[in-house]
Amino acid sequence: MTSARGPRLEFAVGAFLLLALASLLVLAIASTNGQFNFSRGGSYDLTARFTNLGQLRPNAPVKVGGVTIGRVTDIDLDPVKFDSIVTLSIEDRFNEIPIDTSASILTGGLLGESYVGLVPGGDMEVLQPGEELVFTSPAVDLIQMVGKYMFGGGGGDAGATQPASPEAGTASPDAPHSDEGVTP
């Protein structure tokens, strides 16, 4: 005996499974930033030293002018200088990066992902695989900057008060005092 609920229930279960598989696919694509490393060309490594990484993570993009040219492959700590050493894997087709290129840790948007931004220099000599980018700028900690500004560390003289204007009905502290019009 088959009831009328059988085909409907089977359809609902099938639809639920398809929805679950689609969700897993979206999660897989989002967790890899859409990069599955199916690139046709090779890559070479460069390193850079930073004093502060912020939220930079492995697999973060390396960009020049907003165009992704590579990925962060490794982050390590120098046990002597206590600098962070970041290994950048750059696509082979971008093999003419000038030796005086600077690297900065930037954030896409206010709360976006961190990435390494490269600004090419003008030197004719190019970086070779395994070389280190010498000119670097650390990540900017927005929370720390806002805290300093809000609590008196960065907005000028936070303790000073502005004198009230004479139009507001009060005299300026620098104005001469007069006893005219005051009754004892």
UniProtKB/TrEMBL annotation:
InterPro entries: ABC_MlaD, Mce/MlaD, MlaD_Phospholipid_Transporter. It comes from the Bacteria. Residues 155-184 are annotated as: Disordered. GO terms for molecular function: phospholipid binding; phospholipid transporter activity. Residues 43-121 form the Mce/MlaD domain. Pfam families: MlaD. Signal peptide: none annotated. This is Outer membrane lipid asymmetry maintenance protein MlaD. It comes from Luteimonas terrae.
